[in-house]
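User: Show me a protein chain along with its predicted structure.
Assistant: Here is one chain, sequence first, then structure tokens.
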Amino acid sequence: MNKHEKLIEQSKQHLWLPFTQMKDYDKDPLIIESGSGVKVKDTEGNEYYDGFSSVWLNVHGHRKEELNDAIHEQLEKIAHSTLLGMSNVPATELAAKLVEISPAGLDRVFYSDSGATAVEIALKMAFQYWKNIDEPQKKRFITMKNGYHGDTVGAISVGAVELFHRIYEPLMFESIKVPYPYVYRHESRDAEACKQDCLAVLERTLEMHHHEVAALIVEPLVQGASGMITMPEGFLREARELCRKYNVLTIFDEVATGFGKTGKLFAMEHENTVPDIMTSGKGLTGGYLPIAITMTSEKIYQAFYDDYASMKTFFHGHSYTGNQLGCAVALANLKLFELDDIVEKVAQKSAYIAKEMKIIEDMDIVGEVRQRGFMIGMEIVEDKETREPFPAQDRIGYEITLEMRKRGMLSRPMGDVLVFMPPLCATNKELKAMIRIMQDSIAEVAKRKQKVQR
């Protein structure tokens, strides 16, 4: 048994992978061994384009020298010390940098280790904020249908992807759900009409429940895990204003959308609006180490700042909060954002992607291509005119990504929505090669479906 065969056998015997039916993995196992630039290599030596940035994380490509060096340099000093009751050098410097580059009004940084924990922190902060200012009745949350905010119990309680969340309902607290403006599935098929309908529902909900609601949580501009659903222009800004009108906090979950992927550093900047609390993480360390952030306004922070006896302390933390290695590589990552002008280049390359994606949008089983910067979703449908989806049991999105894998590209679908979110450093040549693989894979699976139907 060679090394590859041994690893495959060990993975089947001992591993339990996230968001994976292990019976699928046992049929089509894959183990990544190395990576360079926008490609990764498996234990058999096969190379693949990283078409989803290793689940929406990678910015500058794999094995980026400057990021490697930042970790090595920090290792010569210290790998970790606690942030409970004290700080450290890179965590302090990173907090200052994050406040500097974030939209004005986000003044404080709380560290964690994943997007889900960043959301848990935001929920607990919003809940305790109202308690600390003597309005304890405001303890419910409004969320958006099809929203995804992570997999911890609080995060799934404000999530609304039935496939992921329904089995855990007995564990969840009840949130108030309002529609996210999903234009492709709206009866009018018109962006403005869809936006106004959703805003009207939100305002009625706020009018009815504002006295008991702590916060609205929303994914700005793009709902990622529900299928790359893009917001109509103006919705985010107007939703924020409604919350301000009804004295409800807003939480913008920028875990997926933050750090350049939409063509701005943060998606909210497209709408020139700022929440009371923001979560982010993916892309913060360039895809290297697990650091996430929850940023708040000074108003939120001051509601917790008091003598210890007042019991207004925020009693939350993790063993690796503010880890020096993670913060050091995050600082190096943000330096590269500036040196390489990453955000501006994403905006430019996004136009190239849109042009190249036209040929995919015209394909018979592609209902819609949705794009915000480097966040792209392709909704696969059985009938383009009626927008009728394929039967769920066909798993057509999964089948297409398996075909992509055969042709040298990795991605992961959201149901029957194909995801394309390459590393931000990808060149036009690399982007074109990945788009052609997607095009050929869709065509091949469509051809197989037609043969079966005959």
